[in-house]
Structures are given as C-alpha cells and as structure tokens.
C-alpha cells in the first residue's frame, strides 16, 4: 500500500492538470463520471493515503489501497483494472485497481487535516492527546491508525519503532512521556526522509529493519511477526527495542 510520501509524489505529478477542464471521463468506478466533463480541476489535496481532486461543487477521492497505481498521459493497463480516466485536452490521468468515489465539498470540512503527518497543519499536541485516550492500544496499531497518524504505513511503522527502540506490541499507555514524544516526532521526521529517498530512488537502501533478517545494531536475528489488530508484518529486535 502506498504510504503518505508516495501520495505526495503522485500529487506533484498530477499538479500539471490543475486549472484545466475535463474533456472526457471514463472507467468502471461506480459514480456519474460525466458530471465532471467540462468542469475545472481547481486543487489537489492529500490526506495521508488519500487524494482529493477538487472541482466546483464536488471532489473525487482516490485511495490506491494495497495494489492501486496511476499513470499520466498514457493508458498502461487493461481496461478492466481502469477505475478512472480523466482527460484534459488530449492528456490525462489514469487510476487502476483502487477506490474512487465522488464526495461533496462539505465532506472535506469534516477531515481532521491536523492528523496528516506530512501536512503543514500537523498537530503533534493533538496526536499526543489522542494517544493518551487509547492507553491499551499497541504502538504498532497506533502508528497505523489513520485518525492518529494519517499517511503512516507499514514501512514507516517498522522503521520508526526501530529508530526509537520500542517493540511494536508495547502499549501506548506504558510509554514514558519522553518516548511517546519521540514516537510522534519520528513519525513525521521519517515520513519526510522517506519522501526524500523516494525522490532519489534510494528508499530501500536506507531501510534499517523493514524486511531485514538481522539487527544492524547488535547483529541479533530480527523477529518477523504479524502484530496488532491489523496483523501487519512487524520486524524488530528484542535486544535493541524495549517492550513497554
């Protein structure tokens, strides 16, 4: 599943269409695509793993889910996987194997934009308050909770917990104040590092624990385990990451 930094890169790629009118719309997404023909794309907004194409009275929400993808100015996959194609003067954006929905503009006002770890509106104090209200939540679940850390995915989760020395099955309520603040700060910090490495095409070279077999600190064999409610893969070192 693409994480927040990858969605930022997608937004940047799509930015060329802002200010232009839709000339055609197609795909098997289940909403009235024709209503967007002739409409101007005013803005592209992202919230974690979601992208909003904002028009006059409504928006199109794109979520790439686990296996979604997109392309620009060319259709690269079979029609059956094409959820949405928007054409602008013979150029276009194409979205495949993903969730595509139309939402009213009022819906955007219900989103807690301060929960997006890569947004200028990110509010670490609010994130800390939310963590305090969920003391029995495992930190692996907390980091993956899009209401707490919108944009954080499994790679960021594993790397952040390794960097701050916390095992994924630790409970948020057991974290010392200093460690809780480290968790919040590193979730944002690593997300921007992730973005920089994606731009350089060097992301995997910087992984310290995700998909690795041995600890880069002590050399001990890493634990690979599905953790938390979501049962997502966690990679961690029992020696260098503490269970709180």
UniProtKB/TrEMBL annotation:
Record carries keyword Ribosomal protein: no
A Pfam family assignment: Fapy_DNA_glyco
Reaction catalysis annotation: Hydrolysis of DNA containing ring-opened 7-methylguanine residues, releasing 2,6-diamino-4-hydroxy-5-(N-methyl)formamidopyrimidine
Domain Formamidopyrimidine-DNA glycosylase catalytic: 2-95
SUPFAM superfamilies (UniProt xref): N-terminal domain of MutM-like DNA repair proteins, S13-like H2TH domain
InterPro entries: FPG_cat, FPG_N, H2TH_FPG, Ribosomal_uS13-like_H2TH
Protein name per UniProt: Endonuclease
Organism: Chryseobacterium pennae
């Amino acid at each position: 599943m693409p994480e927040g930094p990858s969605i930022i890169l997608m937004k940047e790629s799509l930015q060329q269409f802002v200010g232009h009118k839709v000339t055609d719309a197609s795909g098997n997404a289940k909403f009235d695509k024709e209503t967007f023909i002739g409409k101007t794309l005013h803005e592209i907004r992202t919230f974690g793993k979601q992208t909003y194409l904002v028009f006059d009275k409504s928006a199109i929400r794109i979520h790439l889910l686990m296996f979604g993808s997109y392309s620009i100015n060319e259709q690269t996959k079979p029609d059956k996987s094409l959820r949405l194609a928007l054409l602008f003067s013979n150029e276009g954006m194409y979205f495949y194997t993903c969730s595509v929905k139309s939402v009213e503009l009022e819906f955007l006002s219900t989103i807690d934009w301060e929960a997006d770890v890569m947004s200028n509106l990110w509010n670490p104090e609010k994130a800390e308050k939310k963590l305090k209200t969920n003391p029995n939540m495992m930190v692996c679940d907390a980091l993956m909770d899009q209401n707490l850390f919108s944009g954080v995915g499994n790679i960021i989760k594993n790397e952040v917990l390794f960097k701050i020395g916390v095992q994924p099955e630790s409970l948020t309520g057991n974290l010392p104040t200093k460690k809780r603040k480290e968790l919040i700060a590193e979730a944002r910090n690593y997300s921007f590092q992730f973005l920089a490495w994606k731009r350089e095409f060097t992301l995997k070279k910087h992984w310290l624990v995700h998909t690795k077999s041995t600890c880069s600190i002590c050399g001990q064999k890493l634990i690979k385990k599905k953790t938390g409610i979501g049962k997502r893969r966690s990679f961690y070192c029992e020696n260098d990451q503490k269970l709180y």
